[in-house]
Amino acid sequence: MTRTTAPEPTMITIDATDRTLGRVASEAAHALLGKRSVRYTPHLALPVTVVIEHAGKLRLPQKRTRGTVYKRYTGYPGGQRTATMAEVLEKKGVAEVVRKTVDGMIPRNRLRAPRMKHLIVNA
Prior knowledge:
The chain is an alpha/beta fold. It has five helices and five strands, in the order βαβαββαααβ. Strand 1, helix 1 and strand 2 form a beta-alpha-beta unit.
């Protein structure tokens, strides 16, 4: 009988200086899914912590900040709310934009919330 041990927690640091939002978010989502680990298992959330450093130095063109629109629905009639990336940057900062972008790249299943808890964004 073989015994399996729990994988050790790993930390992956991504430097976002002078890189585009999509490339940084894609790399972070890939790591959060556990695909950079030898012990990748699709039905488990591996203990991988992803730290994104220098998120404030991301390359965000004005065309993208004005053109990207985030939508949400309150559940009530007429309750669809929209906000541009520029508004989200002003109200909540670049960390929230990075978090939303990575969140959109994680599959929508029961492992999404545990995986997103392991994302740390430092501006």
